[in-house]
Amino acid sequence: MGASGSKARGLWPFASAAGGGGSEAAGAEQALVRPRGRAVPPFVFTRRGSMFYDEDGDLAHEFYEETIVTKNGQKRAKLRRVHKNLIPQGIVKLDPPRIHVDFPVILYEV
Q1: Domain boundaries, the chain
Q2: Which InterPro entries does the record associate with it (predicted)?
Q3: Burial code of 86-106, b = ≥16 C-beta within 10 A, e = fewer?
Q4: What pLDDT is recorded for position 65?
């Protein structure tokens, strides 16, 4: 958990492209040196959706179906979670862009 950033994959998109030195040198210089080459924007415009579509086209995080269980001659309704035939939502566009989790910035409000 908590490994959604690019550091978890060994990739630091906001470091300087000058190279050399270890992680300490890159951490100390990243505020002073602008990256050369491809400029990486600090914003995230899309994300992977966390919801699913079912067979009827309904969109939700979880789906349940009602099953009737007979126990001691009494009928009882139980909810069973559905795992099959669910289609992931896919890529979702973020209306206001978000700041990337690995972007080295301090947010300050007076």
Answers
A1: 41-97
A2: FUS1
A3: eeeeeeeeeeeeeebebeeee
A4: 95
